[in-house]
Design brief:
Helix content is about 20%, strand content about 15%. It has about 150 residues and is α/β, with parallel strands linked by helices.
Length: about 150
């Protein structure tokens, strides 16, 4: 078995339309382009979205807002997730969160939010913390470390 022996399954490939090969083929003379006009010429046709000179749709509709290119987007983790997945005395950092399958894609960092209760003493290292998350971690006897 080598590359020269490989063939597609019968009927899997359709033969290309062969235009300009005589009138008997049914695709001769004008080669399926019709008679004259912009689309019959070489390089003919209009760009996508062209509406014949009418104001294009994309320019007719109103534009609103903007996308802030310097905005930071954080992956969020709530306290109840830490309560379920970690044991007392564990160090919770990005590698530990990835290892437990909590974080799938880290954008610009990790932010810990305060939803749920925390009873375990954890050392949490993240880029940002909400006020309630910080208070709850410290109340449980844990440490908050900003990376």
């Amino acid at each position: 078995m080598n590359l020269t022996n490989l063939n597609p399954n019968p009927g899997a490939r359709k033969a290309p339309k062969r235009v300009g090969r005589g009138t008997g083929s049914g695709h001769g003379k004008t080669s399926t382009r019709g008679h004259k006009g912009q689309n019959a010429r070489s390089g003919g046709g209009t760009r996508p979205g062209f509406e014949g000179g009418q104001m294009p749709y994309i320019r007719r509709i109103p534009k609103r807002g903007f996308k802030n290119i310097s905005r930071k987007e954080y992956a969020i983790v709530n306290l109840y997730v830490l309560e379920e997945r970690f044991n007392t005395g564990d160090i919770v950092d990005i590698k530990a969160l990835e290892a437990k399958g909590i974080l799938k894609d880290i954008k610009d960092g990790v932010k810990i939010l305060g939803e749920g209760d925390l009873t375990k003493e954890l050392t949490v290292r993240a880029h940002k913390f909400s006020k309630t998350a910080e208070e709850k971690i410290k109340a449980a006897g844990g440490k908050v470390e900003v990376i």
